[in-house]
Model the fold of this input.
Amino acid sequence: MLKIAVCDDEKVITGQIESMLLALCGQEGIAVDVEVFYDGSTLERSIQGGARYDLLYLDIQMKDENGITAAGNIRKCDENMLIIFVSGYDKYLMDLFRLDVFAFIRKPIDSSYFYDTFMEAHRKICSKKFYFTFRYKSEEYKIPCSEILFFESAGRQIKVNLCDGNTETFNGKLSEVEAKLSEGKVPFLRIHQSYLVNYHLIKSRTKSQVTLVNGMKLTISEDRQKIFSREYARLLEREINV
Amino acid sequence: MFNWGRIILCMTMTAGTLWIIKKFMGIFFEKKKQKPQTAVLWAALAVFQFFTEHRMSSEPVVLILAVNVLLILAISASGYRRAGKIKIFYIVMLQVVWAIVEMIVFFLLKMTLEGYHGMQMLGSVVSKILMIILVEILAQFWKRKDYANVPTLYYISFLFVPIGSIYVAIHEFNLVQNGRKNFASMVTFSILLLVNIVFLAIYTRLSENYTLEKEKIAYVQQMNMIAINTREQKRILEAFHAEKHDAINKLIVLRDELEHGKRENVLERLEKIISHIDVSESISQSGNSTVDALINFKYAAAREQGIVFQLKIFIPDTLPIDQCDLGVVLGNSLDNAVTAAAQCKNHEKTVQITIGVKKGSLVIVIKNPYEQELKRNKMGNFLSTKRDSAGHGYGVGSIQKVAEKYNGEVLIETENQVFSIMIILGME
Done:
């Protein structure tokens, strides 16, 4: 079940988005639950109270509070939710882009663009439900790929560094893990003989190192810089193209 | 038996030589971070110098010179920052001037102290002292700046001067060694020395001028950027005023029709106004004035060639990127895309522009169809297919330079007759 929140102070817009979503999901056979909010603070309270959504359509300019502030507060509670900004406004502030926005939709809403972004968001949300499985000491382990920051080889063992700061260990080769994950939906990039990094959890990069969302910096080895750049660029292109 | 006195003297001489070279490179090149390779190369040079000093050069002068130049070049390559061509010129110049100074010293000593068995050592000491003084003087007068290189043709003719003079000098010196004592030889050596020093000065002056020239071009680009911006602002303002004037007229008509109950007419007219507003506005309205001005400006020309722009731009109204750099990147890549698309006969002339901000970087992707064959050089870089390609100094190369400045990247791909350039600029 896909959980979607729509927040806009104009009822015409929320109604339009809701009906477009329902029609779309009906057509594509996606189970969906859409909840509508008419102001940012109600939405914030709901999320602070523990409600979780996979996707949020948020108006940038609302009467009581602007979308940027609301999104900032929401991000403090939930880092995973995809946010799509809806706006009739033709200027965006830099602050907006620091919030990890999935896409922008301009009013009046273009239905084919709306369809494309939704499908891309749906694909991304589904990819969060992919798991990485491994065996260690005859026990089977299962970790969501989206929780894995990076794999690190240490001798014959592989350390799995997770978002929450914990690590898991199992026996294996990094190249095998890389091959196994290359078929998956979550892109992992080999930046070093001993690092395999989750693309989605890279915050920024320079030529020779990547910074992860938790602030950790990892070196890109010289011989892999070129291939890494190319792969990274392709993934970036896909992201701006939603 | 070792002659300890001689060994100590040779070591002192070697130290002097290294000091001169280091000081000289410090004047003209910028030092890089210390690397182990550099230290190894310095050590190699020291050993080589020590042995040539110790054995008193029974090998031909040219060979010693060549090894010296190569070793110093290797040191400069690993330890100093400057274009390779410039390094070669200055290092060859140093070696040639040095060799000529040594020859003059030997010649003078030979004239005055014929038969003195310590002459070679004395000559070496004296020429080194002279070189130290020369380099010190240079260091006092030379204020290092990062000058650009001069065009290749000039460069080669400049390089000919030291190489030519060393040939003449060696020839002359061989005559002297074979016993010729002639005042004319002294004159030759002096002239060669003077010519080389003068050329060193001229070369530096010339590259200074070329740097200024390049800066001027950059400045012109900046002016262009501002001009485009201003023109765009003016156009928008004019369009706005025209629209305002029109709007009043249209509203009056609407009111009139409403009063007379012509509902259908009113709806039709409103429909027209709404669709018209969409058309009359600029194609790019991302909210970032630099990007919008540039794209709208380029589109105005492209539209006349039947080219369609498809845009998907979501960026902040202000970017932490210099507007001229942005102008260079967008302007050049759009020019290339438009030129290539305009020549297409079998493809739709569509230029796709996608710009976004992700992971702390500005990402620009421009795609266009192409039918003309692409030319690449040996390095795999694309060459301009424009007829006066030498004049296009600001193509992909300048985009690459900007990308480097912002810790970014330029990627070019061609697939199914679609050329795509992707530029990533870091913003952190």
Chain B touches chain A at residues 285-287, 312, 314-320, 354-361, 363, 365, 407, 409, 411, 422, 424, 426, 428 (CB under 8 Å).
